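Homework help board

Subject: predicted structure for assignment chain

Our instructor gave us this sequence and asked us to write out the predicted structure in token form, then describe one feature. I got the tokens but I'm not sure how to describe them. Can anyone check?
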Amino acid sequence: MLIDRTMPLGSALTVTHASERGPRAFNADAFAVGRRTFVVADGVGDSAAAAEAAWAAARAAALLVDPVAAVLAARDALQVHTGDAVIVVAVARVEGGFDVAWAGDARAYGSDGAELVQLTSDHTVAEYFRARGIVAEARMEHVVTNTVRHATSENIGRAFTRAPRLALVSDGVYGPLGHNGIGAIMSGHASAERLVRAALYARGTDNATALVVS
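My token output:
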């Protein structure tokens, strides 16, 4: 378990992050924290190349303080790697709130301690069909329609929240926990470690990574 606590904006924000390989051969998830930038990336596949791509993307994204530019920087960083990843980036505004950008199905959630809001919309075939009123098969949940390598300024997702708590998670966390499970943890003593441990306890079958800002 990888756990850290930092305070990138003086005493205004506390950050926790945690990552666990779970039953996979490789931990292809990654996280990174910049001065005001927070990142979770999930490598596509269960391989060393996927893990390298996720870490390269996360580290490149964390250097910038514009979330869309951060995703594009992650894309550029993958030009020297063979793997691919999905990513979600949040940047804390000095005046409060978070700007969010993403490519793929890594997610961001905002919480005020009472209500949890999913800020991102998955770039998957299932979500594409749901948005058009078509029932999607379960297997389509895992077929992504956008990744870091294919990100452009036009297809990157964007959101903003004033929620005081933010969670960035890979599908290995939100898959086994669901909206209600994440909401229950974010309403209490929220931490990345609690999210990851709960996902594994719920018999998650993937890498599990979370980053919580509060």
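Reply (TA_rk): Your tokens look well-formed. For the description, you could write something like this. Residues 1-11 have pLDDT under 50 and may be disordered. That's the kind of observation they're looking for.
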